[in-house]
Amino acid sequence: MKRRVAKFALISSAIASLFATELGAAASAGERGTPSHLNQARVAAVANHTHSNGTIERRILASHNDERGRLGLAPLKWNRDLEREAADWARELSRRGVLQHASRDVRNGTGENLWMGTAGVWNIDTMVGMFLDERKHYRHDQFPNISRTGNWADVGHYSQIVWRDTQEVGCAVHTARGNDVLVCRYWPAGNVWGSRAY
Prior knowledge:
InterPro entries: Allrgn_V5/Tpx1_CS, CAP_dom, CAP_sf, CRISP-related. This protein has helices spanning about 1-30, 45-55, 55-70, 80-95, 125-130, 155-160; strands at about 75-80, 110-120, 170-175, 180-185. The chain is α+β, with helices and mostly antiparallel strands. Strands 1-3-4-2 form a four-stranded mixed β-sheet, with helices on both faces.
């Protein structure tokens, strides 16, 4: 278990660097107000499972909206187009065997949260829960001064989930090369330079 946790910590560190690079560029562009920016099943099953009975979708949405509700924020709605885009990118990342944020053009200006872990070990609640766990370092201030650690990327997944202006989310998981990859896309994107999450 310690190896898995260590692997996640290393991956999280890499994610943070990539996350900071991508969203830092988007946030500095000043595009606020525009569209600026699972493991119960395997990849083929996830899309079918989500569409057939919505269990995965409901669990992801509930995790996001429970936290938003706790803060008095409007709930997010599930967006099938964002889900399809997330599935395409999760498949690509699985093929590559790395985590890397999609370019803003590929993302159609949406926000993006990424997660990777050993296949079959983590359930969807734990995956999303790791985004939400960043709350312990969150400081309510203007972006990028939103982390008690001094590094906004330590809370960037969490702040995207609770960004007031974000209205829709779509997520997907793909499994390959011994890993599960979760991609969530958000519209409109959060983490806008000089703004508060809520």
